[in-house]
């Protein structure tokens, strides 16, 4: 029943951090809006209630007449702001014994790899209580819950004033009994908020589930107090809140974990529903405010992310999939002498843009010019008020609310003066270029801001295989209308939609939302394998026996074997799910459905009989992978919601879900994994019921009056559009009639925003008052970039597709845009590699890097994934060019791979896959669009049927060896490459990180320029032979091939994006800016050298000695101030080692590039230009320039850390970090293998302490979640904690290391390759050294070794910086990592 029918108001509210938007729907159905400050304690208690009173015509002291209000529906940032500011309620964490620091350490990666002072997010809990009870992955109770010490710990927390508790136990997502018992205990003691992880987020992954639970405990009391405050003023009025997942929930049921994206979720609902009602079922949401821009994607259903990070906290709860970029109306503009830049800093509301008459953002030495994005439009009010395009406008369109007395208009003059100053500075910096005027500079800044926003939209669309060219861009937010046409152009979109209430659409969306309840559960069951092979998800039964046998209880062995059979984690039937699976799916779906529907029914208004819609979904992945895709689960037609299960028979469902998953996987990643079983990781049921009549809220406008011929402009102003000043009409939106239309350029003003209609666009007023902007003239991109397509094609032809073209002059606007685009492509490649890879090492630990290269193989952009890979792949590309016979011998469809450390590689496990990029036409002629990622084994199986395919035709004319060029003489235009650490590639020990190797042969299979794909045909047979025909072959070739396919897939993303870039900007421009970004990087490094002292500065740093020798790194840095260059001389470094502590030359280059990048405050492009001012002397035959066949496996992971610390020591910048990656591997001959690096402490600096338990310097790989580790491997993570006091003392102390104890449940070979077990991390300037690291074995039944405070482990089994040992079931492997060195004398 609508508010009109009931004779009551409805209020839809978005309480933001600065403003609260209130939309009121009168009893007659008409809509009114207001906007008030969210915080104004001098005037009112609550902004939402004040807004309601204002629209009702009441005074602030009047009571709210609840009988006149049907419902209040709100979104709020109260909890979000409390999380951002860390102002939630005091909370204690109860967690499994031994894992008290697991949520603090989390996945060990640092948020900014180039920050010397690593700042981690503040924890939301203040006290940790460890609970001794524990179950394993199968539910076996390993230790009973010891309630006495737990109750004492809870009592201490309560006595200290803590009233919130979060309970997080290992595997409680599946076995929650202990958590529930602890909840009862805490409630008995008197805690008012108890959140348990099995209820907050019943999904696998201890860290993200734990973070979600602690956030819920931390925020729910704050939220509850706010809800009660609002409810107390509204009386009996029905009050509902928007959840992060996009559904309304009764105020009494609203929880902290569900509130994080409450306001933005309303915006997505508003954008999606209004777009559909306006006839645009596919839309991209574009919400641009004063500080940032939120973007979203919608195609008939809301997209949700089930694992996100907000304010440094990992959340595992359904949330609207929103991507945010720091580009809003307040984003600060800057010019650093080479590039124009936008953001990420914001001017905020105070001082705001320069036109606010508060001085604007400060001018800084780093290049900030005192202007913000809002000033580009020649005046504005951030994300709230009016803005006009770059041209003088009449002051009457802006309310005079600025200046100290809030009675002056916007200050256009100061904006003009500052842009003129920037234009002058740009012209001076580029004396050979045509001088730019203020309008050109302003337009350049605008283009960069638009580029940032377009890249954000690509994150949620293009990277997932979604073509947005047929979508509508739904623009809203105070600043969206001024930029929407330009953003649409940047994305190839031709339609923009703006709702009549676009300025308050997040609030409006609250009224269009439904009541929704979401329930989910873990399944981990197979849908079967298309090949008929039996899925093998885990070694459940052997692990079960091992666990029970360790406990030496025969009865438990039998009992637990039965339990495992009942809870089988996968199908054993092969081609189809078994009867047990069918029963379990039916049971779980039925239970979830009943609970979801009941949740909706409890929240419905009395008398509401609208139907409840129920959707069944499943998170599905391929066996052995981690990337899930949300798929629909089919339902039986006519099945009643809430019945036993509204799903089709499992056999039918399995086929439908598998087909849906494969189709989605192909669309998103470009391939399917034939023969792989599909695993249902979790299932969910969502129930929804309408909470209002959305269509009734969108009435048709009346027909225009007789004789109406179209809108009349209020005035005409001079404004800068499309490269020149033009006379532009300014319209008042309130004067529009249904059906009005006109062409741009034009400016449309209204109370809540301004819309810019760009050249080539046409505006039409739709029937319900919305504005549809449509491009009616094709966009001429090449003209906009200043280089004709014909000219660059001629240049490319003359150059044979490579060099030799006329280099286009550098433009600071294009320079910034291309820097962003190049890096974006490398990052997109990385996303693809992570998503489609097979091994844990790549997918979860993120041990990979992706990069782009120019035609000669010089690095253009290297996404900052793993620092040790920075800059080192260029040598691999150049080596491949040489070993393959030169550029002329390469052909479209070729893909090479290399891991040779002496020819551009790092160490054997790091495999680099290199793809030459030819013109798009040749590429398309060679590679089928249906196999964009070159998984052509399926195509080969087609045999003769494929004879006349494009790929076959492209092969005609080649010799049998494939040597003659199918490229018609064209050389590669570019190269793309991906480097990934393969966790098994042969060698003398499983995991391919042998601690005691003395030759390269012992470290695994080595190859140099191997042709992996020949003209589009995967050489699978030859590749298998390569990995197996070795003295120490790979133990898991299938995994190698899967990861290689993923690398090829990542490269193909780079190829596609480079082709698109050439289409958009022309080949000549792209090649020119590949050169310009290198020049820019070179200048950035020279500026670093300008600030460094002249003269030689030396430092020597020993590594742990062996019987074979003493490794040592020595560096002398000499800066030549006149030449603005430096020499880094490694003379004095130890000779090539007989051990594996030798680093190929690429390692030193990567370490040097990393250090110099960290010395720069602002981001600089990472490419070949960075090394041009540096002369690096690496003595041949030394451990930093070894010769074949020296072993090198430790060079990449250990020597690199020593080089970095040594260089910092020479510069006096940082004390020694832990100085090792603590390379921990285990495996067996059956192919089971795992590799991880383990964090420690970082070194202190002149102004800051070190950071504890985080990765440092040349690695930033992640740890696998403890629950995932135990699920996949036969082990138990017994301890994972910070090693208190291990950081070196000083004026600023070093960071602490960690302690990790793992119990193995089967026989396993365990190896450690590390450093700093004998030579401690150094302190600087009187600071003390960090503690040494240790590793040792504790055999089953022996006493605990290395008690806290002991300093020597040399006599223990498995000790030392290099060790390998065979463990049996029940044995523990223990690691203590080093602390960082201190800086300055201890006070």
Detailed description of the structure:
This protein is of the alpha+beta class and 1387 residues long. It has 32 helices and 54 strands. A hairpin with a 3-residue loop joins strand 1 (9-15) and strand 2 (19-25). The longest helix is centred in the first third of the chain and has 29 residues, at 206-234. The relative contact order is 0.07. The model is unreliable at 379-395, 529-577, 637-648, 782-804 and 928-967 (pLDDT under 50).
Main sheet characteristics: 8 strands, mixed
Low-confidence stretches: 379-395, 529-577, 637-648, 782-804, 928-967
- How many strands appear in the DSSP assignment? 54
Distance between the termini: 72 Å
Spatial extent as radius of gyration = 32 Å
β-strand percent reads 15-25%
Strand order of the largest sheet: 19-14-13-23-24-35-34-31
Strand pairing plus helix content: what structural class?
A: alpha+beta
Average pLDDT score: 82
The share of residues in helices is: 25-40%
What count of helical segments does DSSP give? 32
Topology:
Layout lengths: L2 H4 L2 E7 L3 E7 L5 E7 L9 H10 L12 E8 L1 H8 L5 E6 L5 H4 L21 E5 L2 E2 L5 E3 L3 H13 L4 E5 L8 H13 L3 E4 H4 L5 H29 L3 E5 L5 E3 L11 H16 L4 E7 L4 E7 L4 E2 L2 E3 L2 E3 L3 E2 L2 E3 L5 E5 L4 E7 L21 E5 H4 L35 H18 L8 H23 L11 E5 L7 H8 L3 E4 L6 H8 L1 E13 L13 H12 L2 H13 L12 H25 L9 E10 L6 E4 L17 H20 L8 E13 L24 E7 L2 E9 L8 E3 L2 E5 L2 E5 L3 E5 L5 E5 L5 H5 L3 H10 L13 H25 L3 H4 L4 E6 L5 E4 L10 H11 L11 E4 L11 E8 L2 H7 L10 H5 L8 H6 L18 E8 L28 E5 L2 E2 L1 H9 L8 H29 L1 H24 L4 E8 L9 E9 L4 E5 L15 H14 L15 E4 L15 H19 L11 E5 L5 E5 L28 H7 ...
Parallel strand pairs: 1-4, 4-11, 5-6, 5-9, 9-10, 13-23, 23-24, 30-32, 45-46
Antiparallel strand pairs: 1-2, 2-3, 7-8, 11-12, 13-14, 14-19, 15-18, 16-17, 20-21, 20-22, 24-35, 25-28, 26-27, 26-28, 29-30, 31-34, 32-33, 34-35, 36-37, 36-40, 38-39, 38-41, 39-40, 41-42, 43-44, 44-45, 47-48, 47-51, 49-50, 50-54, 51-53, 52-54
Helix pairs in contact: 3-8, 5-6, 9-14, 11-12, 12-13, 12-21, 15-16, 21-28, 21-29, 28-29, 30-31
């Amino acid at each position: 029943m609508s508010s009109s029918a009931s004779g009551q108001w409805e209020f839809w509210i978005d309480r933001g951090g600065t403003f609260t938007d209130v939309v009121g729907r009168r009893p007659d159905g008409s809509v009114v809006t207001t906007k008030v400050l969210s915080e104004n304690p001098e005037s009112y208690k609550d902004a939402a209630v004040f807004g309601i009173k204002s629209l009702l015509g009441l005074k602030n002291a009047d009571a709210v007449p609840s009988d006149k209000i049907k419902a209040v529906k709100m979104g709020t940032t109260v909890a979000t702001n409390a999380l951002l500011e860390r102002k939630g309620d005091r909370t204690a964490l109860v967690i499994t014994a031994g894992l008290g620091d697991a949520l603090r350490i989390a996945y060990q990666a640092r948020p900014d790899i180039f920050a010397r002072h690593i700042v981690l997010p503040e924890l939301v809990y203040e006290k940790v209580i460890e609970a001794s009870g524990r179950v394993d992955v199968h539910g076996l109770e390993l230790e009973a819950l010891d309630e006495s010490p737990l109750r004492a710990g809870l009592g201490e927390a309560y006595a200290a004033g803590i009233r919130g508790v979060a309970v997080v136990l290992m595997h409680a997502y599946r076995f929650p009994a202990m958590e529930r018992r602890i909840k009862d205990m805490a409630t008995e003691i008197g805690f008012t908020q108890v959140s348990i992880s099995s209820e907050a987020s019943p999904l696998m992954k201890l860290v993200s589930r734990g973070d979600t639970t602690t956030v819920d405990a931390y925020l729910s009391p704050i939220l509850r107090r706010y809800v009660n405050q609002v409810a107390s003023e509204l009386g009996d009025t029905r009050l509902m809140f928007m959840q992060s997942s996009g559904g309304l929930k009764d105020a009494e049921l609203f929880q902290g974990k569900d509130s994080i994206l409450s306001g933005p979720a309303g915006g997505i609902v508003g954008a999606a529903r209004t777009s559909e009602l306006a006839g645009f079922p596919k839309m991209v949401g574009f919400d641009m405010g004063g500080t940032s821009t939120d973007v979203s994607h919608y195609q008939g259903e809301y997209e949700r992310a089930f694992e996100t990070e907000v304010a440094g906290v990992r959340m595992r709860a359904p949330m609207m999939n929103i991507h945010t970029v720091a580009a809003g109306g307040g984003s600060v503009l800057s010019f650093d002498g080479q590039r124009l830049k936008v953001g990420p800093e914001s001017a905020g509301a105070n001082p705001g843009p320069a036109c606010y008459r508060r001085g604007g953002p400060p001018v800084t030495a780093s290049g900030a010019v005192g202007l913000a994005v809002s000033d580009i439009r020649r005046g504005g009010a951030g994300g709230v008020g009016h803005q006009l395009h770059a041209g003088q406008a009449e002051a009457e369109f802006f309310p005079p609310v600025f200046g100290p007395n809030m009675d002056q208009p916007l200050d256009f003059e100061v904006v003009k003066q500052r842009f003129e100053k920037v234009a002058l500075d740009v012209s001076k910096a580029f004396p050979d270029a045509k001088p730019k005027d203020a309008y050109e500079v302003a337009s350049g800044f605008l283009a960069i801001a638009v580029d940032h926003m377009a890249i954000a939209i690509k994150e949620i669309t293009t990277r997932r295989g979604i073509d947005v060219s047929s979508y509508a861009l739904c623009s809203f937010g105070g600043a969206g209308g001024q930029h929407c046409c330009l953003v649409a152009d940047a994305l190839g979109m031709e339609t923009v939609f703006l709702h009549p209430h676009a300025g308050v659409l997040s609030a409006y969306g609250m009224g269009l939302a439904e009541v929704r309840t979401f329930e989910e559960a873990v399944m981990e069951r197979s849908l079967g394998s298309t090949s008929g092979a039996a899925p093998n998800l885990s070694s459940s039964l052997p692990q079960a026996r091992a666990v029970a046998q360790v406990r030496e209880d025969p009865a438990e062995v039998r009992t637990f074997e039965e339990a495992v059979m009942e809870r089988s984690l996968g199908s054993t039937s092969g081609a189809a799910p078994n009867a047990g699976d069918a029963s379990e799916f039916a049971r779980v779906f039925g239970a979830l459905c009943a609970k979801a529907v009941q949740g909706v029914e409890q929240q419905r208004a009395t008398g509401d009989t609208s139907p409840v819609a129920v959707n069944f979904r499943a998170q599905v992945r391929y066996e052995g992978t981690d990337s899930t895709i949300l798929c629909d689960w089919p339902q039986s037609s006519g099945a009643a919601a809430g019945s036993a299960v509204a799903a089709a028979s499992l056999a039918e469902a399995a086929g439908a879900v598998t087909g849906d998953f494969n189709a989605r996987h192909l669309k998103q990643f470009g391939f399917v994994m034939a023969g792989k079983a599909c695993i249902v990781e979790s299932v969910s049921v969502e129930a929804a019921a309408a909470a209002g009549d959305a269509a009734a809220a969108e009435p048709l406008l009346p027909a225009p009056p007789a004789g109406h011929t179209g809108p009349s402009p209020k005035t005409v102003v001079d404004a800068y559009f499309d490269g020149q000043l033009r006379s532009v009409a300014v319209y008042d939106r309130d004067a529009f009639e249904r059906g009005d239309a006109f062409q741009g350029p034009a400016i449309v003003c209204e109370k809540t925003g301004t819309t810019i209609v760009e050249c080539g666009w046409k505006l039409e007023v739709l029937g319900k008052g919305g504005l549809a902007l449509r491009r009616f003239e094709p966009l001429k991109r090449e003209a906009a970039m200043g280089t004709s397509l014909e000219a660059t094609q001629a240049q490319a032809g003359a150059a044979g597709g490579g060099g030799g073209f006329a280099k286009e002059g550098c433009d600071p606007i294009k320079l910034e845009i291309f820097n962003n685009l190049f890096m974006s492509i490398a990052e997109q490649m990385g996303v693809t590699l992570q998503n489609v890879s097979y091994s844990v090492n790549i997918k979860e630990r993120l041990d990979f890097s992706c990069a782009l290269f120019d035609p000669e193989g010089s690095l253009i952009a290297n996404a900052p994934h793993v620092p040790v890979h920075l800059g080192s792949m260029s040598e691999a590309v150049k080596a491949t060019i040489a070993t393959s016979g030169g550029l002329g011998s390469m052909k479209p469809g070729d893909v090479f791979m290399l891991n040779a450390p002496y020819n551009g590689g790092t160490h054997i496990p790091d495999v680099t896959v290199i793809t030459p990029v030819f013109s798009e036409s040749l590429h398309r002629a060679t590679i089928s669009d249906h196999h964009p990622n070159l998984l052509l084994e399926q195509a080969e199986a087609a045999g003769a049927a494929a004879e006349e395919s494009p790929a076959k035709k492209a092969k005609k004319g080649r010799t049998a060896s494939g040597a003659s060029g199918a490229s018609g003489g064209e050389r590669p235009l570019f190269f793309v490459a991906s480097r990934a650490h393969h966790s098994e590639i042969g060698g003398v020990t499983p995991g391919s990180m042998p601690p005691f190797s003395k030759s390269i042969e012992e470290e695994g299979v080595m190859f140099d320029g191997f042709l992996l794909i020949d003209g589009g045909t995967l050489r699978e047979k030859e590749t298998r032979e390569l990995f197996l025909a070795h003295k120490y072959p790979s133990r898991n070739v299938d995994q190698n091939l899967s990861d290689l396919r993923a690398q090829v897939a990542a490269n193909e993303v780079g190829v596609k994006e480079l082709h698109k870039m050439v289409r958009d900007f022309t080949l000549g421009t792209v090649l020119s800016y590949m050169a310009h970004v290198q020049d820019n990087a070179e200048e950035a490094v020279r500026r670093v050298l300008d600030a460094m002292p002249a003269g030689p500065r030396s430092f020597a740093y020993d590594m742990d000695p062996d019987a074979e020798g003493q490794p040592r790194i020595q560096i002398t840095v000499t800066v030549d101030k006149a030449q603005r260059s430096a020499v880094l001389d490694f003379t004095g470094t130890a000779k090539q080692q007989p051990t594996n502590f030798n680093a190929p030359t690429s390692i030193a280059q990567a370490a040097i590039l990393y250090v110099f990048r960290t010395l720069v405050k602002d981001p600089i492009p990472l490419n070949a230009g960075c090394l041009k001012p540096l002369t690096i002397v690496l003595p041949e035959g030394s451990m930093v320039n070894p010769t074949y066949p020296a072993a090198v496996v430790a060079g990449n992971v250990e020597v690199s850390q020593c080089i970095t610390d040594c260089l910092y020591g020479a510069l006096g910048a940082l004390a020694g970090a832990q100085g090792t990656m603590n390379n921990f591997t285990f495996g067996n001959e059956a192919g089971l293998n795992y590799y991880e690096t383990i964090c420690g402490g970082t070194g202190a600096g002149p102004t800051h302490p070190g950071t504890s338990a985080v990765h440092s310097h040349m690695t930033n790989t992640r740890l696998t979640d403890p629950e995932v580790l135990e699920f996949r491997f036969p082990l138990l993570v017994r301890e994972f904690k910070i090693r208190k006091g291990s950081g070196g003392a000083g004026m600023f102390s070093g960071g602490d290391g960690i302690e990790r104890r793992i119990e193995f449940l089967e026989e396993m070979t365990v190896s450690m390759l590390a450093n700093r077990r004998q030579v401690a991390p150094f302190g600087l300037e009187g600071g003390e050294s960090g503690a040494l690291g240790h590793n040792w074995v504790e055999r089953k039944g022996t006493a605990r070794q290395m008690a806290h405070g002991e300093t020597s482990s040399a006599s223990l089994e498995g000790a030392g910086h290099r060790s390998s040992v065979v463990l049996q079931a029940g044995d523990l492997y223990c690691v203590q990592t080093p602390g960082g060195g201190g800086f300055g004398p201890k006070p």
